[in-house]
TrEMBL record:
Compositional bias per record (Basic and acidic residues), positions renumbered to this chain: 361-370
GO biological process: regulation of DNA-templated transcription
Record lineage: Bacteria, Pseudomonadati, Pseudomonadota, Alphaproteobacteria, Sphingomonadales
UniProt protein name: HTH luxR-type domain-containing protein
Superkingdom, taxonomy of origin: Bacteria
Molecular function via GO: DNA binding
Region (Disordered): 350-370
HTH luxR-type domain span: 280-337
SMART domains on file: HTH_LUXR (SM00421)
């Protein structure tokens, strides 16, 4: 792979460099258009390079149509890739610039002139070297931006998996980010709502307390060891929401989120969240149904009635559950199940009737030894 490393003069490169410096790290198409113009090429494409496997799938491409007008940037990118793979070392119609922003990240900026154009000359190749230092710095920024975007996407996915509402707000309750559960609570409009990109309580008294709490936490934070302030946000005909406010550790930029709001709906249907916990402990279908009834607040007798079994049969199921979980009281069982809840995608009914998984074997053996 040919790599440009030195800098020499080149006609209108100064104007290109000025325009390039104004491009944000994510504006890769703009960068490719600038390189295309500087090289007087038919196509330019940006590829990852897989060690031992060559060029990967094109990340972005730009190109100019030839006289027939049949070449789109996508078609030229395909032509470019084919030309490079076929004659990357011997064809002077192709020029490859290699970059390695990190030891694990390899990229190639590939330029192609079609057969109707003159071939790249050594003078032109050397002239393009003037862009190399800036391109290398820009690609480094692009990689960092991609990693940050990927990490942010992963964090949003993790937040959205939570059954509880999570919001990132500013000192004035400006909403920066919210997970799926929080958006559902805001859309419901009972207790909390969103207005002008701000989180507000429906009732005036609750709104005053919410605004005061968020402002105080944003300004003072929370002393170590102290419980975060928790508010009750009242709703019509339903239990109030519980809202806890936690400070965000940040560099001090006032435009950044400063407070995390954790919102718990006491009327949340926890049954779907129990499927993963029941599989974790290897409950059989009858044991799973019993646990669902107990977590819902029903007594053992009420659970037996709903399951249409004798009270003594339900007691046998309960003993089996105790053996698998290592607890000996119904209250402790409910607490353990609530602490073991996890969001598990899929058909909850099917999972509830599925056979126990391998974890059950270890749980049973461990319980039997005790």
């Amino acid at each position: 792979m040919r790599t440009m490393q030195q800098s020499v003069g080149f006609g209108s490169m100064e104007l290109i460099e000025v325009a390039a410096h104004r491009a944000a790290p994510r504006e890769i198409d703009k960068i490719l258009e600038l390189v295309l113009s500087a090289a007087n090429a038919a196509a330019v494409a940006f590829y990852p390079v897989v060690p031992g496997a060559g060029l990967g799938t094109v990340i972005a491409a730009a190109g100019r149509a030839d006289r027939s007008g049949i070449y789109t940037p996508e078609a030229l990118a395909g032509l470019l890739r084919h030309s490079l793979l076929e004659q990357i070392e011997c064809s002077s119609h192709a020029l490859v610039i290699g970059f390695e922003p990190t030891p694990a990240a390899h990229f190639a900026l590939c330029l192609l002139r079609d057969p109707g154009q003159s071939r790249f000359t050594r003078t032109e190749a050397r002239a393009l070297n003037r862009l190399y230092p800036w391109l290398a710095g820009w690609i480094d920024l692009w990689c960092r931006n991609q990693r940050q975007s990927s990490q942010a996407h992963a964090l949003r996915s993790a937040m959205s998996a939570s059954p509880f509402g999570i919001m990132l707000v500013g000192a004035d309750c400006h909403l920066f980010e919210a997970n799926r559960s929080a958006h559902a609570l805001l859309a419901d409009g009972d207790g909390l709502l969103q207005a002008d990109r701000r989180v507000r309580a429906v009732l005036r008294a609750d709104q005053l307390r919410l605004a005061d709490t968020v402002g105080s936490v944003a300004e003072d934070g929370r002393p170590s060891g102290m419980m975060p302030p928790v508010l009750q946000i009242r709703r019509q005909g339903r239990h109030p929401l519980a809202v806890a406010a936690m400070p965000v550790e940040r560099a001090g930029n006032d435009d950044d989120p400063s407070v995390i709001l954790y919102i718990v709906d006491p009327e949340l249907d926890v049954q779907p969240l129990l499927a993963g916990a029941c599989q974790l402990y290897g409950f059989r279908p009858t044991e799973t149904r019993l646990v669902h009834h107990l977590v819902a607040g029903r007594s053992l007798g009420e659970a037996a009635t709903r399951m249409r079994v004798q009270h003594e049969t339900a007691r046998v199921y309960l003993k089996q559950v105790f053996s698998k979980t290592g607890v000996h009281r119904q209250a402790n069982l409910v607490r353990l199940m609530l602490l073991s809840m996890m969001p598990v995608p899929g058909d909850v009914d099917r999972m509830a009737t599925a056979p126990p998984n391998r974890v059950a074997d270890f749980s049973e053996r461990g319980a039997s030894k005790n």
